[in-house]
Specification:
- It contains eleven helices and eight strands.
- Helix 11 links the parallel strand 6 and strand 7.
- The chain has one domain: Rossmann fold (3-Layer(aba) Sandwich), CATH 3.40.50.2020.
- It is 35% helix and 15% strand.
- It is α/β, with parallel strands linked by helices and 248 residues long.
- Belongs to the ComF/GntX family.
- This is ComF family protein.
- It comes from Gluconacetobacter sacchari.
């Protein structure tokens, strides 16, 4: 009855679709899904493939390894995927979380099969008050339902508010986030010895996810992987055009 009153439409272009939560055929085809070959640590899509196995790591990650083990993203962060992410994040389109979560679960299938716990990147309480929900928490909850993994939504906490990071480079973001995120004291036992997958909407430089990974590791997590809806090119580093095999 609801579909009759409010016919479901594509969340990107608003063309009619069979049921709510689906992309139309044209928008689905235009989405740039990330699949192998991609960096095993940050999920950055490679421009060209070459022989190799799971040890593929991009040059920036070889130069400065991230503080987590593996990383995957479902989509390239471009005009199409940005429309989905920003509507989820700022326009109360919480119905988009399950749609993105399905693609995230596909992209992160291998790491999710070996995980114990999903942990969303936290919002500061001031920002959470105004937004009323944490989009990373919605994504983590939806992924947890798909793959039947527990979610600890308040495992990490932002100790202080931080300014918007969009216009900052990698070094500036790291400086802003230094000691800004920690494990919640009452949740440290829930993190200790667990294989954690951190969940967020977008990875750009990885500074926020890095701060979260360090906090989870400090709380005793056995391992930390990251899974995001979309991966943006790092504005502080050159675009990756190839890959190398990690050593060891």
């Amino acid at each position: 009855m609801l579909d009759l009153l409010l016919p479901p439409d594509c969340p990107v272009c608003h063309q009619p679709v069979e049921r709510a939560g689906l992309l139309c055929a044209d928008c689905f085809r235009s989405m740039r899904f990330i699949a192998d070959p991609c960096c095993a640590q940050c999920g950055q899509s490679f421009a060209a493939s070459a022989p190799g196995g799971g040890g593929r790591v991009c040059a920036p990650c070889l130069e400065v390894p991230p503080p987590w083990r593996h990383g995957r993203a479902a989509l390239v962060y471009d005009e199409r995927s940005r429309a989905l992410v920003l509507r989820l994040k700022y326009a109360d389109r919480t119905d988009l979380a399950p749609l993105l979560a399905r693609h995230m679960a596909r992209a992160g299938r291998d790491m999710l099969e070996n995980a114990d716990l999903l942990v969303p990147v936290p919002l500061h309480r001031g920002r959470l008050f105004h937004r009323r929900y944490n989009q990373a928490g919605l994504l983590a909850a939806a992924i947890g339902r798909i793959v039947r993994l527990p979610v600890l939504p308040d495992a990490l906490v932002r100790l202080r508010g931080t300014p918007p990071l969009a216009r900052l480079g990698a070094r500036a973001r790291q400086d802003v986030l230094r000691e800004a995120i920690a494990a919640r004291p009452s949740r440290r036992d829930g993190l200790a010895g667990r294989r954690i997958v951190l969940v967020d909407d977008v990875m750009t430089t990885g500074a926020t996810l890095g701060a979260c990974a360090r906090a989870a590791t400090a709380a005793g997590a056995a391992s930390v992987d990251v899974l995001v809806a979309a991966r943006a090119p790092d504005p502080g580093r050159a675009v990756v055009e190839g890959w190398r095999l990690s050593v060891g």
